[in-house]
Write a structure and sequence with these properties.
Strand content: 15-25%
Shape: elongated
Distance between the termini: 28 Å
Length: 368
């Protein structure tokens, strides 16, 4: 059990800030940050930039140099104790002569978790576990989901008016193309989130109506996640802007989407939403940002596969319009209730965030 030591929380926050620099770029590895502290001074900082490159501890130890001897290392995830693409970070910490290692969270892999901490203790290093654990676990949600459940962490994002409409309808009853619900601050936040995820998912209806590119715009140094189009009936045109190299199209077994493959898209076949997410997990998607439309979101929600919700509410009243979800009628007592809910004003809009599923942890079972 962790005994509170105020400087630990402060330095772990710095380590979490370092880890944030790698969010969305490290898959299938986790985002990890590390700071080396000696005599109340930060001597080294590091983060894991991408799979195949050195881990956070290595960068921090390089910067600290000889000042790492007798120092404390703050790491957001338990240092690895096995050889992968890079040598074990445990060995690097031991060789550097650090006196203490503070770990935010243990590795979620049941075959690995705890071994790094045990090896450090066996080498005579003081080890503390559990500092800022909740923040670290949330930052690592995608990695944890991929490791323990074999599927990405699913985030459902939508924007609606105060009366619960995500789009206006035209005279034919179709959703209005490119109608903007929220303001600039909310749209900028969405672009920042796209920069942090592995994939953006939409249904074929959204592609047909909006013909979106699903890219990251206006984010300095941003990179585009992979588009994922759920199209069980093969409705998406192969000439749609989103059909390009890197895009994944999820369709039903037996569908012929060879024209999409010829355009560079990768086609995977799945009969059910859970099977589709498992297939995306095999492609190393650790996070999936679901942006539309109501049929796709409803199918994932009804299957219990939406892990996190991020909803923007705009101070507008529309009347008739498109609802954010489709699904069967159910009594209010069966509504899915968000946990750990937060509220944040963004311009005139309100951002509501919360969890529907628990983030997988070591020995937590990994349901869903």
């Amino acid at each position: 059990m962790y005994t509170e030591h105020p400087p630990d929380a402060e330095y772990m926050r710095l380590a979490l800030s370092e880890a944030a620099r790698g969010v969305g770029r490290t898959t299938p590895n986790p985002p990890v940050g590390c700071v080396i502290v000696q005599g109340g001074q930060v001597m080294g900082r590091g983060f894991h930039p991408r799979a195949g490159e050195p881990h956070a501890e290595v960068f921090a130890l390089r910067e600290a140099g000889e000042q790492a001897r007798g120092a404390t290392a703050y790491v957001t995830l338990e240092p690895c104790s096995h050889f992968g693409r890079t040598p074990p970070c445990v060995d690097a910490l031991i060789a550097a002569g650090v006196a203490r290692v503070v770990i935010a969270a243990l590795d979620p892999n049941p075959r690995v978790g705890g071994q790094g901490a045990s090896r450090l203790r066996a080498a005579g290093i003081d080890v503390t576990v559990g500092v800022a654990e909740e923040q670290a676990v949330h930052q690592q949600a995608g990695f944890r989901s991929l490791v323990m459940r074999g599927r990405p962490w699913v985030i459902y994002k939508y924007a609606m008016t105060l009366d619960g409409k995500v789009a206006a309808l035209d005279t034919s009853g179709r959703s209005e193309a490119n109608g903007l619900v929220t303001g600039l601050a909310s749209r900028a936040r969405v672009m920042a989130w796209r920069n942090e995820v592995d994939g953006i998912a939409v249904g074929s209806g959204t592609v047909t109506t909006d013909d979106p590119l699903l890219t990251t715009r206006g984010v300095e140094g941003g990179r585009d996640p992979r588009p994922v189009v759920f199209d069980g009936q093969g409705r998406t045109s192969a000439s749609a802007r989103v059909i390009r190299p890197g895009t994944v199209v999820v369709t039903a077994p037996g569908m012929d989407l060879s024209t999409h493959e010829a355009a560079g898209a990768q086609v995977i076949y799945a009969a059910q939403p859970r099977e589709a997410l498992t297939e995306l997990g095999r492609l190393n998607f650790s996070t999936l940002f679901v942006e539309g439309g109501p049929t796709l979101a409803g199918s994932l929600l009804n299957a219990g596969l939406v892990d996190e919700v991020r909803a923007f509410v705009a101070p507008k009243l529309l009347g008739a319009g498109l609802n954010p979800l489709t699904g069967p009628l159910r009594p209010m007592r069966e509504a899915q209730v968000l946990r750990d809910v937060t509220f944040e004003p963004l311009g005139a809009d309100l951002l509501v965030r919360g969890l529907l599923n628990d983030i997988p942890r070591l020995n937590a079972g990994g349901a869903n």
